[in-house]
Amino acid sequence: MTRIFSGIKPSGHLTLGNYLGALRQWVQADQHRADALFCVVDLHALTVDHDPARVRRLSRQTASLFLAAGLDPELCTLFVQSHVHEHTRLSYLLECTATDGEMRRMIQYKEKAARERAGGGSVRLSLLTYPVLMAADILAYGADEVPVGDDQAQHVELTRDLAERFNQRYGATFVVPRAVLPSVAARVMDLQDPTSKMGKSHAETSGIVYLLDEADVVRKKIMRAVTDSGSEVAYDPEAQPGVANLLEILAGCTGRKPLDLAAEYSTRGSGYGALKKDTAEAVVELLRPIRERHAQLCADPGQVDDVLRAGAERARGLARPTVDAAYRAIGLLPPV
Ligand code: TYM
Hints:
This protein has helices spanning 16-33, 52-69, 86-95, 100-104, 107-118, 125-139, 153-170, 215-223, 241-254, 258-268, 271-298, 301-330; strands at residues 3-8, 35-40, 77-80, 145-147, 178-180. By secondary structure, it is mainly alpha-helical. The chain folds into 2 domains: 3-181 and 301-330, HUPs (Rossmann fold), CATH 3.40.50; 215-295, Tyrosyl-Transfer RNA Synthetase (Orthogonal Bundle). The strands form 2 sheets. The protein has a 3-stranded parallel sheet. The protein has a two-stranded parallel ribbon with strand order 4-5. It is globular, with a radius of gyration of 21 Å. It binds ligand 1. Ligand 1 binds at residues 5-9, 17-18, 20-22, 41, 44, 134, 137-138, 146, 148-149, 151-152, 155, 186-188, 197-198.
C-alpha cells in the first residue's frame, strides 16, 4: 500500500493556503487511498524567534484543525513530531549525508535568513538545517508520496537526493519519495500582495485568510483583495496575478478549473466585483464547517490528546525499524 507523509508546522494560525495547498488533498483523497501519516511538525516551529507558550498553543490548535478539516483517526495517523524521537535521531545521520552548499541553496532558507537579518536578528543554525529534519520526517516512514504545496517542492527534491545518496553509499535503506502537488491552488498568494505567497507567519495579516477567521472578516479580506488594472477577467498569473489568485482560490473551493471560471466571468462581463463576491462566499462556505467542528473540539481537548497519543505510538512503531537500519548501515555499533 502506498505510504504518505506530510506535515504542517505550528508557526502561526493555519491559512487558506495551507488548506488548499495541502490539507484539502489529505482529507479528500490521501487518507482514503493510502496509509497516510499527518504530523504537527512542531520542531520546525523553533527555527525562528518563537514564544514557547504560543508554539504549545498553536501545536494543539493545528492538531484540532486537522480533525476539524476532516482527517479521520480511523483512516490515518495523526501525531506530533516531537513525540516521536526517530525524527531527530535520523536527522543527524542525514546531516552527515547533506552538504552545507546544498543547504545554503534552499530558497526558503535564503528568503527567511534575509528577512531575519533585515530585522536585525540573527539566524538560528536550525533554519539552515531544517530541510534535513524535513527529509528525516519523510524518510523515517518510508513514504512514497509527500503531498505539499509548491513552496515545499524543493525540500522534497532534496529529500530524494539525500535518500539516493545514502542508499548508494551505505546500501538500500530508504524509499525515495516524490512530491505530489495539487493541480490548482498549489501556491495561494497574499491577497494584498499577489506576487508573494500567503504565509502563516507573515506580520501583515490583511491579505491572509485564516481558517478560523469569522465569516465577515473573510468577506472583507477577499473584497479588498488587490486586483489588477483593467476589469477584464482573464487567467494570466504573470500579467494579472491578483485576478489569477482569486480564480485559483475559487477553483480550489469548487473543484472547477481557473481557465473555465475565467471564461465564464469574462462572458458575463461583470468585472472583478462578481468574481470577488463569489470567491468570498465560496471560502466562507468552505470554512464554516471547519470552524464549527473546531469549536466543538476545543470544548473536549481530551479527544485530541487521545488521538495524538495513539498516533505517536503507531508512528514510533513504524519509524524505529527504518531508523535503526540506517544507524547500522552508516557504521554505528548497535547497543550491546
Ligand atoms: P508549512 O507549515 O509552511 O505549510 C504546510 C503545507 O501548506 C502548504 N502551503 C501552501 N500551499 C499553497 N499556497 C500557500 N500559500 C501555502 N502555504 C503553505 C505547504 O506547501 C505545505 O505543504 N517544511 C514544511 C513542513 C514539513 C513537512 C515535512 C511537509 C516539515 N516536515 C515533511 C511535508 C513532509 C512547512 O514549513 O510547511
